[in-house]
Amino acid sequence: MAEIPTTQKQYRLQHFEGTHGLTLFPSEPVETPQRKQVLVRLHAASLNFRDILISRGQFGSFSFPPGLIPLSDGAGQVVALGDEVTSFQIGDRVCGTFFETWQDGPITPDNVSRALGATVPGVLAQYRVFEESALIKFPSHLSYEQASTLPCAAVTAWSALNENGVKAGPGETVLIIGTGGVSLFGLQFAVRAGCQVMVLSSSDEKLKLAQSLGASFLINYKKHPDWEIKVREITNGKGVDHVLEVGGEGTLNRSLDAVRLGGHVHIIGVLAKSAGTCSGFGEKVLYSSVQMRGIYIGSRGVFERMNKSIEINEIKPVVDRVFDFENVKEAFEYLASGKHFGKVVIRID
Questions:
Q1: Where are the membrane-spanning stretches (predicted)?
Q2: What pTM was computed for the model?
Q3: Which end of the chain is least crowded, N or C, by CB within 10 Å?
């Protein structure tokens, strides 16, 4: 293995006004791992819509200090070990977990306070030191670019359909809203579980691609603006068992009309703005006995369980485009454009 350099390249957000604040620092120190820590040479990182919001200073009520290293999702190779590390060896291929301290069980405020690319430095760098407990080996059939898509998007989709007492399975119907990273992982996981999957998009081209991944029903919401009615027609008036809800207030009311009595609405994103369509949803939740859950990624334990399924089923993440490290701003702009189908990845090395 090549000698570890003393300096590295990394990106930082110097201010939060979009890509204008992204600055490449060409000669930052490479840290030495301490007790129970691991140094990883990062080879790829992937973008989530959260990263766009953070770069614009629009991530809820959160504020971040200038100099933040962005991005939560990366994959690389272990190149050095601190004392007392027992779970990894030099050469292992690994991902970091989205929340550094969330091992398993319910999420805690401490877990939330340790989120990569937000409250702690992210992965848009050539090297990063991780706590041993904040790393996980990724499935052997995946490339670094593919593995970099797992920590947020894949874990979120898996958590929605397979955790906390939920287990989507044969004979059930799943409505997937959109064709971004979380949505396509949800599609792949649901298909492998034997579910019938409907996909909602404004693009016929993207719907055809979703069909190639196993979607049974395709709905263009530009052609069917009252798409919840179409969902009811397809299910003979019953409604779907699960909705992966990425729109938030802009689509939630329609999702509640599309789900069956006692079904599940998994809120995994807030991409769509309200146009006065969210009124009355409380009554719909009550009288439909709908189970609504907010999915805030998942723990390291969830990540491990998901990886086993990905390995067994040889699932491959859908990567739309890969950008070079020098073209990070273009990657951000491409994701923000909404043209992507699946994940947008940055090749670091």
A1: none
A2: 0.94
A3: N
